[in-house]
Design goal:
Blueprint: E1 5-6, E2 9-18, E3 21-28, E4 33-42, H1 47-61, E5 71-77, E6 80-85, E7 90-92, H2 93-96, H3 104-123, E8 136-139, E9 144-146, H4 151-156, H5 186-189, H6 196-212, H7 222-231, H8 237-240, H9 246-255, H10 267-278, H11 298-302, E10 324-327, E11 331-332, H12 339-353, E12 360-361, H13 364-369, H14 377-384, E13 388-398, E14 404-414, E15 419-423, E16 426-429, H15 433-448, H16 454-461, H17 468-481, H18 488-504, H19 509-524, H20 531-547, H21 552-566, H22 569-582, H23 587-599, H24 603-616, H25 621-633, H26 637-650, H27 655-667, H28 671-678, H29 688-700, H30 704-711, E17 718-719, E18 724-725, H31 727-737, H32 741-761, H33 766-778, H34 782-792, H35 802-819, H36 822-833, H37 842-847, H38 858-864
Parallel strand pairs: 10-12, 10-13, 11-13
Antiparallel strand pairs: 1-2, 2-3, 3-4, 4-6, 5-6, 7-8, 8-9, 13-14, 14-15, 14-16, 17-18
């Protein structure tokens, strides 16, 4: 191969050879640079396999991370497939490892970026499958670069007889092995399907070898090595190297669990624990003072894991002055239809304990979403940063006469020691359920030695209603509202259940408060913005306040009425603040304060509040999603992307999180990653916000195939929280940017007809007028376009919403650019660039065809260049 050419690559020298290909230094004659060229096994003529290879190759090539070797090109010449990659000048980790392992500081300098790189791939659904020191490069400046992401998967696409088999050699062998034996996970060794947790196991082996100088599983040949991986426990790190803190051992041993469910779910959590270890984290000392956590302490404060990893403790640490507790959902021992009731008991106890200022309570959402499978109590303490765990079982029994009774068996455990502090069993009639909840909460307080005042005692003992049937209707509704299901049909059912609860018990404050929130939600999510819907929210909140104006639940409802229903933000903030005073551990109140500050344009304050929320709610995907949104507005794109990746790891099925990640990547100028992130929208029932954000991301990155697919998911016309949707307009823009002027005009004419018809039957708001203005502009109707786009700035909800106003200002700038008002358009873009905003960045101005009409203008070009 030396001296020959593959396409425009001139082969200069051979750098190495492995089971998955030969690597050469080559000269890219087009761009005049040296690259590493990996030549893969001969191409397969099977079209299906070829298509699979191309799919996998595109996904791997889309990875962009400072610690991942970039793939510049994937091509085929003369029956050979090859990848052109970034050329890293340096040595492999294998050659840099001393016989007795690395010192802790150097270990962490390499391990953290290594795990960060793998985590970034996991966030995009890519597993490495062959992690080992030979695939980790340290360049001449000591930076970590990981090679060959997904390459084993690519080679797997090649046939070997009838199927792929596992080879028993220590080196990777083309077509016969999906990893290197000494670094395989048990599931790899057995030929079972693998996911991110398999990479975590391999990372554990690499980390073990980095810190000790030896691999944890060794044999005299491949078979005995595989046997050790499948059967033998790893010798503790501190036994091989007594100077190593046991915190390192705990991290590595969790990676090396034989059962994938007992490992870190992705490399992101592993990276976070290593980061906490480097920061010297110890068990957090909690006090009654609200947590004001700086963004620089993000990993410790937000992610919740790793709080107990900082130093080796020979004996359990004392419980903090303000102990932290998690109330896990009680196990339902009855029919599946009773699940809401068992969950409701834990929710109610959580709510009662949240009213105590000297007790920290993990949020309901983090408790619900934490997967305890295979986790010991000490591991739970480390993962969630809690001192105590309360859980239990519930059985609801009914007899033929209609009488019902309930058995609740709670237990309180001091988690770090896995020591039961208290347990009991309650067998009562159903109408005694509130007494049971009060008694359990009271026992927890007494056992923890938490001092409480008279009002706090009242909050522990108060029964929410005297009507058990009303309570069940409330619980069924609450199960919907407290979930991540934001669908009109589901919330309609919740409203019906809450109306029933309020009708049965006109003194049921919590039901009226939740009903007020539900009706306000219809306005906020643009399902029904009628005056009658707002009035229904007002009637419900007025009744809650009439029952008890000081109730934190009534104040929460008042906050939602002002925030969601009225878009009146300062009264909303004051109400949420009062709710927080009555419920010190309420994530809902803290989030309400944060969300209102965002609408007021006070994004830094919002970010600080979200940090406090995340400390109480570390495993809530929505918390990390909103954190990603806020950091993106603050133009902290790398942190924002990590927050979105964390959210995706916690809830992989949410298209909103993928859409947010794509938008942030686009603003950062990473078009490949942006499109890779939003591609899931075309495969799922994405919500309105995800569709619209995904559409503009695809357009901004000029991916017309993806943009067209998302455009077909848009409704003919429909309103959403941030933008108006119109399928014909979406098609029109795609045709315009592809040069099809006639086709574009036909679509914009159709969009105009549909928008005008919509305006006759609905109360037009700022979102609607903004879309109307943009369509008028594309049809050359300059004056109506400018009037509509300018009017959008004066109408609700944009007129008093600083965040939403940014969307409308960008739309106005687009209209001005299209109709030839270049100076005005550039002025609005400059205004957006000079403030916190997630609408415009210099990179986006360079990327997006939306701004093509402004190119060549010196002022615009200066903005696009970041000047």
């Amino acid at each position: 191969m030396i001296g020959s050419r593959l396409g425009h690559y001139e082969i200069l020298e051979k750098l190495g050879q492995g089971g998955m290909g030969e690597v050469y230094r080559a000269r890219d004659t087009r761009l005049d640079r040296d690259v590493a060229l990996k030549v893969l096994p001969a191409a397969d003529a099977d079209p299906e396999r070829a298509a699979r290879f191309e799919r996998e190759a595109r996904a791997v090539a889309a990875l962009r991370h400072p610690n991942i070797v970039t793939i510049h090109d994937v091509d085929q010449r003369d029956g050979l497939r090859f990848l052109a990659m970034e050329l890293v000048e340096g040595q492999t980790l294998t050659k840099r490892l001393p016989p007795d392992g690395l010192p802790l500081d150097r270990f962490l300098e390499i391990a953290i970026p290594l795990c960060d790189a793998v985590a970034a791939a996991h966030a995009r659904g890519i597993t490495h499958r062959d992690l080992k020191p030979d695939n980790v490069m340290l360049d001449d400046e000591g930076r970590v670069k990981v090679l060959d992401f997904g390459l084993a998967k690519l080679v797997e696409a090649e046939p070997v007889g009838d199927r792929t088999v596992t080879s028993l050699s220590h080196a990777t062998e083309h077509g016969r092995i999906l990893g290197t034996v000494s670094y395989m996970s048990p599931e790899q060794a057995e030929g079972r399907p693998v996911d991110a947790r398999s990479d975590v196991f391999s990372l554990g082996i690499v980390l073990y070898e980095m810190i000790t100088g030896a691999r944890p599983f060794q044999g005299t040949n491949s078979i005995s090595t595989l046997t050790a991986i499948l059967r033998d426990p790893a010798k503790p790190v501190h036994e091989r190297k007594p100077t190593v803190a046991r915190a390192v051992d705990r991290i590595v041993q969790r990676c090396l669990a034989k059962n994938p469910a007992e490992r870190y779910p992705t490399a992101r959590e592993l990276r976070d624990d290593l980061q906490a270890l480097r920061a010297g984290a110890t068990p957090r000392r909690r006090s009654g003072v609200p947590l004001a956590i700086g963004l620089g302490a993000l990993v410790l404060a937000v992610l919740g894991t790793g709080w107990y990893l900082g130093r080796d403790r020979p004996s359990p640490a004392p419980i903090a002055e303000r102990p932290m507790i998690v109330v896990f959902p009680f196990e339902n021992l009855g029919p599946a239809a009773d699940e809401y009731f068992a969950a409701g008991i834990a929710d109610e106890i959580t709510s009662r304990l949240s009213a105590l200022k000297d007790l920290g309570v993990l949020s309901r959402t983090s408790a619900l979403r934490y997967d305890r499978t295979g986790r010991t109590m000490p591991q739970i303490a480390e993962d969630l940063g809690v001192d105590y765990v309360l859980d239990g079982t519930v059985r609801w029994a009914r007899d033929a006469s209609g009488k019902s009774a309930v058995r609740v068996t709670p237990q309180l455990v001091r988690a770090r020691e896995d020591r039961q502090v208290w347990s009991s069993s309650y067998d009562r009639a159903m109408d005694q359920i509130f007494t049971i909840q009060s008694e359990i909460a009271g026992e927890v307080v007494d056992r923890l030695g938490v001092a409480i005042g008279g009002k706090e005692r009242e909050a522990l003992e108060a029964a929410p209603t005297s009507d058990v049937e009303a309570y069940h209707a409330y619980l069924r509704a609450h199960a919907i509202v407290a979930s991540t299901v934001f669908a009109r049909e589901a919330w309609e059912r919740a409203a019906v259940e809450l109306e029933e609860a309020c009708s049965r018990d006109p003194k049921f404050l919590r039901a009226f408060a939740e009903l007020a929130q539900v009706h306000a939600g219809f306005v906020h999510f643009a399902w029904d913005r009628s005056d009658e819907r707002v009035a229904r929210s007002k009637r419900a909140v007025d009744r809650a306040l009439e029952l008890d104006p000081a109730s934190p639940w009534a104040q929460l409802a008042l906050g939602y009425y002002h925030y969601w229903g009225r878009k009146d933000y300062e009264p909303a903030y004051q109400a949420f603040t009062k709710a927080k005073a009555g419920l010190p551990s309420s994530v809902e109140a803290i989030n309400g304060m944060a969300f209102v500050r965002r609408r007021q344009g006070r994004f830094q304050e919002a970010a600080e509040l979200i940090e406090r929320s995340a400390a109480l709610d570390p495993r809530n995907a929505l918390t990390h999603y909103t954190r990603g949104e806020t950091l993106t507005v603050l133009r902290r794109y790398d942190e924002g992307r990590r927050s979105y990746e964390r959210a995706i790891a916690l809830d992989p099925n949410s298209t909103a999180q993928s859409a947010g990640l794509g938008r942030t990547a686009m603003l950062a100028g990473d078009a490949d990653a942006a499109c890779a992130s939003v591609r899931s929208i075309v495969e799922t029932a994405a919500n309105t916000e995800s569709r619209q954000a995904g559409f503009w991301t695809a357009v901004g990155c000029r991916d017309w195939d993806l943009a067209s697919k998302i455009a077909e998911l848009l409704p003919e016309v429909g309103n959403a929280q941030f933008q108006f949707e119109c399928r014909a307009a979406g098609r029109g823009w795609i045709r315009k940017f592809q040069g099809d002027e006639a086709g574009a005009r036909a679509e914009f004419e159709r969009a105009k007809r549909e928008l005008v018809a919509y305006g006759k039957n609905h109360v037009p708001d700022s979102n609607y007028h903004s879309m109307l203005g943009m369509v008028f502009a594309e049809l050359g109707e300059k004056q109506p376009a400018l009037e509509a786009a300018r009017r959008a700035l004066t109408l609700r909800p944009a007129s008093n919403d600083a965040w939403l106003l940014q969307y409308r200002k960008l739309d106005l700038a687009v209209v001005e650019a299209v109709v030839g008002e270049r100076a005005a358009a550039i002025g609005h873009l400059r205004e957006l660039l000079e403030q916190p905003s997630d609408q415009v960045s210099a990179a986006l101005l360079r990327l997006s065809p939306v701004f093509d009409a402004l190119r060549g203008d010196p002022e615009f070009d200066a903005l696009a260049a970041g000047r």
